[in-house]
Amino acid sequence: MAEYEQPFIRNFSIIAHIDHGKSTLADRLLGQSAAVDQRKIREQTMDSMDLERERGITIKAKAVALPMIVRGEKYLFNLIDTPGHVDFGYEVSRALAACEGALLLVDCTQGIQAQTVANMYLAMGADLHVIPCANKVDMQAARFDETVTELEQVFGIKGPEVIKCSGKTGIGVQDIIEAVVDRVPPPNGNHDAPLKALIFDAVYDDYRGVVMYIRVRDGFIEARQKIALKATRGQFEVLEVGVVRLGQFIKQDRLDTGCVGYVMCGIKTIQDVGIGDTITLASNLDQVEALPGYKKPQPMVYAGIYPVNAADFDAVRKGLQKLSLSDSAFTFAPENSGALGTGFRCGYLGLLHMDIVQERLERESDLDLVQTAPNVSYEVLQTDGSIVRVDSAAEMPDITKIQEIREPIARLNVIAPTDCIGDIMKLTIERRGIYENQEHLGANRVMLTYRVPLAEIIFDYFDRLKSLTRGYGTMDYEIIGYEPGDLVKLRILVAGEDVDALSMIVHRQFADTRGRKVLFKLREEIPRQLFVISLQAAIGGKIIAGEKISALRKDVLAKCYGGDVSRKRKLLEKQKKGKARMKMIGGVEVPQSAFLSILQVSNED
User: Fold this and answer.
1) What are the phi and psi torsion angles at 461 (to 5°)?
2) Tens digit of pLDDT for each residue in 527-584?
3) 471 torsion bin: left (phi>0), alpha (psi -120 to 50), beta (else)
4) Cα separation of 544 and 236, whole Å?
5) Averaged over 227-253, what is the pLDDT?
6) CA distance 585 to 386
7) Which of 105, 110, 247, 563 is 20 to 30 A from 281 (CA-CA)?
8) By residue range, what is the domain housing residue 161?
9) Shared domain check, 587 and 464
10) Count of CA atoms in the C-beta half-sphere (13 A) of 459
C-alpha cells in the first residue's frame, strides 16, 4: 500500500438507523471508484448474506478499499459499512475506532430515529469528524428542512453542513466524496513506531481460517512477521496481508500506518480472536500498550433451541458449531428439558441476533426447530459473598443461599410522535421503567429516556410500542449495569412435582399474576387423566396460586336403579381407592403444546 501516502488516505464509516439507506449509498460510492468492476455492482453489493439482502439490514461490518480520483488527485477511501441495530453496538464502536470520520445518514422521510441518536453519540465519543447527509431527498414525502432543523436541535449541526443526497438516484454523491476529502482528516500514526493495529472485525473462512480485519495505527504489518494479540496473548505467524474489494481479498506486500485491510494467520477458531483487540509484534507484546475500548462480547439474552424431531439432535449440534465458528458472541451448551427433550441453551447479544441465528440454522441445516421464550442473565450474590451468573431459572441457587439477585438494567431511548407520550409513559412505567429525560425533536416528535430492566423490554415491548405509536415509534437501548431487584424464582408444580422447564425468574409484584396465567394455560393444555391433577405456582415453599384439572370419571352408579344407598357408597369408595392407587403409580406428562402456549404469557392482567 506504499503507493498511497498517509495524506491521501481517508478512513470513514457510514452510520444510520436501520433502513435509512447505508448499503444503497455504499453502492453509489463503489460505482464512483475506477478500480471497481461496474458489472459486479448490484443492489446492496456489500451485503453478502442472503438474509441481509432479504431483510434490507446489515448484520456484519464490511470494509472495502476504494481508489478514488478527486479533483485530479489519487486518494484511497477505506469505507467501513457498519450494522445499524442495537444488538451490534459493540461492533459499531470498534468499526468507528478504526476511522477518522463518519457519514451520518438520516432518512428525509422519517427524520432522526432512535439508533441515529445512539450511533451519533458513539461517533462523538470516538472523536470522529461527522458529515451529516439527508438521504432520500428525491422522494415525494421528503422533509429536508424539518430534518435539518432536527439535526440542529439534537446534535448542534449547522444547516449549511448538511448534504442533500439520494443513494438511489446518485444525487449529491459527488458532494459527499469531496466532503470526505475536505472534512475527514488523514490518518495519523508513526510509521517508525512498533506495530500497533486494531482488530475491528473477523470472519471465518472454510479454507483460510479466521480472517482478521484491521486498522494499522502505528508501524506496518507484512507476511512472515510473528505477531501477538494483547488480550488473548495468542501468538501467530502472518501468512498473508492485503485489502478487500467487493468481497475479494487482494494480496499486498504490506499494510502501512493508517491502512485498513485483512490479515490471515491460519487461526482455526474465531474464539482465539477478540474483536477490538490489539495486534503487535510478539517481541513487543509487553512493551506496547493496548488500544482502549476492548471488551469480551457478553451474551445478554438466552433461549433454548430444540429440534422438533429428536433424531435431528446431532444435526442441530453440528449446525450450531458451524455458526459459532463465524460468530464469537454466540454461545451454546447442551440442555435437557422434561417438556421438549434434549436441546441447547444458547446465548445471544439481543433479540435480532437470536432471530438471525435461528433463521440461519433452519436454512443452512434444513431443520425444524422450537425456540423457547428469551430470558436475560442475572447475577446472584450468595450468603458466602460469592457472585454467580445465572442464565436460567433452573440454575438458580437454593433460596436459603441467596442474599440478593441483580438484574441487567438498560437505558432506553424512545422516539415517537408527541401525541403518544401518555401511552408510552404508561407502558414503560408498567414495565418498571424510571423516567430520566424528555427532549423535543421539532414540533411533533419527542425523545423519552428511561432506565428499564432488560427483562421487561426484550419480550414484547417493541411490538407494544409500534402498536401504540401506529408504527412511528422507534427505540434503542444500551446496557448500563446490574442492579439489585426484588426478584424471585417462580416454581411450577404439576401433580406435586417441579417442572424445571416451566420455572422462571420474575419480579415479586408480577409473580401472582404470572403464576395464575401460567396455571390457567396449563389447565387448558394438559389432557385430563383418570385422577385429579393439581397445578401449583410457588415461591420457595409458599404456594401462591393453584388450579385443578378434574378427573375423567366412569359412571359406576349407572347400573344401580334405586336400591340401598349403602351399595352406591360402596361403589364410589371402591372407585376412589382405585384412583388414589393410579395417582401414586402414574405420572403426568406435560405435552409440548402446553409448554409452548405459556411462552406468550405476559405480566399485564
Assistant:
1) -60, -45
2) 777 777 888 888 877 888 888 888 776 666 667 777 777 777 887 787 777 666 554 4
3) left
4) 59
5) 85
6) 42
7) 247
8) 6-183
9) no
10) 17
- What is the three-class DSSP state of 391? coil
Q: Over 70: is that where the pLDDT of 50 sits?
A: no
Q: Tell me the CATH number at 214.
A: 2.40.30.10
- The DSSP result for 142-161, as a single string, is --HHHHHHHHHHHH---GGG
Domain boundary among 284, 319, 352: 284
Q: Of all residues in the chain, what percent are helix, strand and coil, respectively (each to 5)? A: 30, 35, 35
Say if residue 122 is in the same domain as residue 162. Answer: yes
Tell me the CATH number at 521: 3.30.70.2570
Count of domains in the chain? 5
Is there a domain that residue 427 lies in?
yes
Give the pLDDT score at 309.
79
Residue 573: all three cell numbers together: 369408595
pLDDT at 51: 47
One domain for residues 41 and 121: yes
In the predicted structure, residue 25 carries a pLDDT above the cut 60:
yes
On whether residue 90 sits in a domain, the answer given is yes
- Locate the DSSP E strands across 71-208: 73-81, 101-107, 129-135, 163-164, 196-205
Q: Please name every residue paired with 506 in a beta bridge, in sequence order, or none if there are none.
A: 488
The confidence score (pLDDT) of residue 498 equals 75
Are 96 and 151 found together in one domain? Answer: yes
Q: Are 129 and 185 in contact (CB under 8 A)?
A: yes
Mean pLDDT of the chain: 80
Closest CA to 217 of 185, 256, 189, 254: 189
**DSSP-based three-state secondary structure for 322:** helix
Cα separation, 576 vs 531, whole angstroms: 9
Asked if the model's pLDDT at residue 371 lies above 80, the reply is: no
**For residue 593, what pLDDT band results from cuts at 50, 70 and 90?**
low
Using the 3D structure, point to which of 432, 451, 485 is the last residue of a domain: 485
Residue 328's CATH number: 3.30.70.870
Residue 119 sits in the same domain as residue 18: yes
pLDDT class for 589, splitting at 50, 70, 90? low
CATH code of the domain containing 478: 3.30.70.240
Q: Are residues 476 and 367 in the same domain?
A: no
Same domain, 229 and 149: no
In a domain, 605, yes or no: no
Residue 189 within a domain = no
What would the grid cell of residue 411 be? 437505558
C-alpha distances out from residue 274 to 80, 230, 244, Å: 18, 9, 20
CA torsion sign for 522, 528, 529, 533 is positive
Contacts of 146 (CB under 8 A, 6+ apart): 111, 442
Angle between helices 22-31 and 173-183 (to 10 degrees): 90
What are the pLDDT digits (tens) for 423-465? 888 988 888 888 888 888 777 788 889 999 888 887 777 778 8
Q: How many helices (H) and strands (E) does the chain have?
A: 14, 32
423 & 447 share domain: yes
CA Rg value for the chain: 29
DSSP class per residue in 27-46: HHHHHT-TTS-GGG--TTTT
Asked if 25 contacts 105 with a C-beta cutoff of 8 angstroms, the reply is yes
| Nearest residue to 454 (alpha-carbon basis) of 488, 409, 485, 499 | 409
Give the integer Cα–Cα distance in Å for 44 and 58. Answer: 9
Q: Which residues contact 298 (CB under 8 A, 6 or more apart)?
A: none
